[in-house]
Amino acid sequence: MDIQHSDIGDVRKVILAGRLDTAGVDLIETRFGASIVPAGKNTVVDLSQVTFLASMGIRMLIATNRSLSRKGGKFALYGATPAVREVIDTVALTELIPLADSEVEAIGIVGG
Amino acid sequence: MRSTEIVDGRLRLVLANTLAAVEDGRSEIMRFLGPLDAMAQNRLEVLFEELVSNTIRHGFAKGSGQSIHVEVERGPGAVTLVFEDDGLPFDPTQAELPEGFTSAETARIGGLGIPLIVKLSSALRYEELSSRNDTGFHPRNRTTVSVAAQSAAAEEDA
Questions:
Q1: Which residue in B42, B69, B78, B80 is deepest, having the highest Cβ count within 10 Å?
Q2: Could you tell me if A70 lies within 8 Å of chain B, comparing CB atoms?
């Protein structure tokens, strides 16, 4: 599991790569939160290289979204594969966190 | 992972009470099944991850010698996984589905595996067991899940 972040204007962009299974979340969760919450920026997360997502990964996204929202920041996901999208849809995560088809759309959602 | 064998064409695994066993078991199962259509493979991996990790986290005493027995069968058009464990009874078919999300502040972070187990399986059955066998393993729970699946080659031909 790997993570990178950068800024596009005032928007924080985070790229996750690998499997967000129990072991993957264990490895990445602290760094994921650290790359997003302290900055408090509107944030988009690129899921195009995430090959697996289950409840532990969903939990990580929800918890980080909560911490970011307390700082006034907005959060959106994009680029999910069909398999990852099916998991997101099954738990209805998009009731809470938008899922866009592209980076441009995601940035537009968070107001960048 | 404690053991792996193939009996009558079915893969049988015995997983230890550690989260590392989840990855070991997953790899073994995917190797046994061979390439499947991508969505079915993902559903199987999610179901396996959710059922095994839930048992290890909530059904077992930490550091206990308890184990999870998994049998995998590839039938025509479907893959079936049977999980047996000697942990606390847990019936996923009766577990309450979490309510919808309404806000970031109130969003529930627990219980999210339940909708994945219920909705990604084509069939789901639970039995609470009480019979004893001669192996020294006395399972209390049996959960059977099936996922409709075709080979990756069949998916390409379609």
A1: B42
A2: yes
